[in-house]
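Data availability excerpt. The first of two example chains:
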Amino acid sequence: MKKWPVLIIAFVFCGLTAVTAQQKGKFDFAEETFDFGSIKEDNGSVEHKFLFTNVGDAPLVIQNVQASCGCTTPAWSREPIPPGEKGFVTAKFDPRNRPGSFRKSLTITSNADQSSKVIYITGMVEQKPRTPADLYTHKVGNLRMKYQSLNMGNITTEKPLSRSFDLYNDSQSAIAFQDKFDKPDHITIQLEPMVLGPQTQGKIIITYNPKAKNDLGFVSDPIKIFTDEATESEKPMRVVASIEEYFPPMTLEQLAQAPKLTFSSMVHDFGDIKKSAVVNADFVLTNSGKSPLNIRFIKPNCGCTVVNLDKMDIAPGESVTMKVEYDATGRRGTDQKSIVIFSNDPSAPTQRITIKARISESS
């Protein structure tokens, strides 16, 4: 008979526990999306406070608010919100360098019945007027350019390529260009106009002869132009390009008779090595085509990698060994390097192999 009071107490306790477990806070936002409308980039950040009521039956605790973009900074009620009370989530949006329409989310993590909830801010950023300093960020003397490097992009050895780049005279006096240049022979420079008026725009025209460069892959050449300015009259720049060998269109029959470069493997993993280790790997290169194969260039992307290949000309059916040495000195963690091989294989003239290692701190 004495067991009944114990059972009753246990039953009541379980019931209370079940009721407590069902009690949750609940968000009721006045709005879940706010439109800032049109805002000006140069007016700085804008902010909106989302208000909500806890319509649940237990205190509501916001654990975190994560914005979808670094341009948005959230803030929120840090104390528990009792049932029936109000709280907030604030979104501060920075429009700098973000012209155009936007829609950003804020993900709220809490102990509410819906543990994750998303609210949004939207709007349109009116771009601020761009000054010459904004448009032409690199300046030498009174001459401004968009970049110090003049990028010719991807070009082939088929023929020379010309490209123009904007210049801007940021002074109140005219700048006269001198008819002399410091440049390699495969680059031709033209300036228009030769006298650039104050606060006006001109251009530099680069004509690049990739065949005369006699190189493949990413290349970079220093150049200089000269003006009549009293100071900083020398204007150093770089011309960069990515050169690929040109192959004329070929029929299927011609491709079947062409050289073909294949590798024993495309990746070698040295595994775990010490930070002062110098390790070696062999890659077997085979000409599986029907014409002589010529290796044009071999380019590792790091001075820590040395490549040796005894023969650059490989007969049909012949194989040669390419030796790769990797020096881990001064490197740490997981390291991965690539070696680019350029050949006269028209179907795959540029191929890349990879070496990798995990370098320990212990010597």
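And the second chain:
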Amino acid sequence: MTIFSEKEITRLKEAASLLLEAEKTLPVLKTLAWDRSHADSFFASGETIPPTPTYSKIDTQVCDEQVSAARALIDGSSPVHNWLTRFADVTERTAEMLGAVGTADFYRHSKELYGSPSTPIADGKRTALDLALHLDEILSEFDGAAVQLDPSEKLTADDLKVALEQELPKYFGEHVPDVEVTDKVSAKAAAGSDYIKLRSDAMFSDLDVGQLLQHEALIHIATGFNGRAQPHFPILGESHAGNARTQEGLAVFSEFISGHLDPNRLKRLADRAIAIDMSAQGADFIELYRFFKEKDAHHNPIEAFESARRVVRGGLVNGGGPFTKDSVYLSGLVDVHHYLRTAIRAGDTKLIRLLFVGKVDLKDLEAMELLLSQNLITMPQLMPPWATDLRYTLSYLAYSTFLNGINAEKIAPQHKAWLSQ
């Protein structure tokens, strides 16, 4: 096993510090954000004139210099060196993507960073688009029932704020994130390093309480806190394109394993991946808007606009250049699910807790284990209940590993005869 000298540890920590500062100069989602006036104008036009967003240009000179200086310090061969090198690569590609906002090149850089719905996942044969189309087909069969089963959206943003403020202290203690109701966000809800923002005019259901708690608070905010609390490598608190797939997959898995991933939510994630592929094939904003409006069980125009915005932000409104980040929710879910089942086979719960030491990608876990073995990082302080009390999670994953070996296609004919009657 690699043993780092004090001199090498100092170099690695300095490189990580430089990369952290470089990454902080690249606010991806803030740069790609749209002002609410675009929605107002779109609806004022009778939903006929697509938005025309403009984006601020990012000066990447300081970022480039810091990455270059960090690379000079990452001179060695180990999982930790590989982790920091990947971070440097991602930071450079992110700078290139932000330098290409509003152009066709933006889509090319986005695919390199996040992949796309057609990027192979799991066994290298299937894709997130395959999963999205599968989910959309199956769950669409239940659309009528889903509307009946799904609670009507009857909580205001203020109601949801109260509900979250009752739940969050149970898990965060003195580190409770703020919950803010505002008209400054486009999405129904958005989270930062220590806050959750709720759109003031949005309506929510009781299911949204659990989803936001599990996804935003107990994964995104908690892993960020754990990472920033690392005494030697606070870089682990930083979100970036290189850990987005695992982080979003972990967040969706948290919804799923805790019983808060309802059919409409899962179908919405699938439809985003389908829409990204549609945009890549040339669909414009209005086509995407109509697609989401039709797919929404409640045909909500505001949420359809928001979903279409997510697909084209930073890229081309008129088609051919989507922002591909939303394809990572499904691909990441598959990745995380398979990793957790592998960890169960290995019989080591530490392999699960490593996911929470900060904002990591699955490819980073070998580096995390090495850092942990040399007391250069600590085990996480904040984790969701399903990861701290693993009884149900272990039972489910152990059962799941057995089911994975069963050929469902051979079993299906046993049931089809009477099911089709």
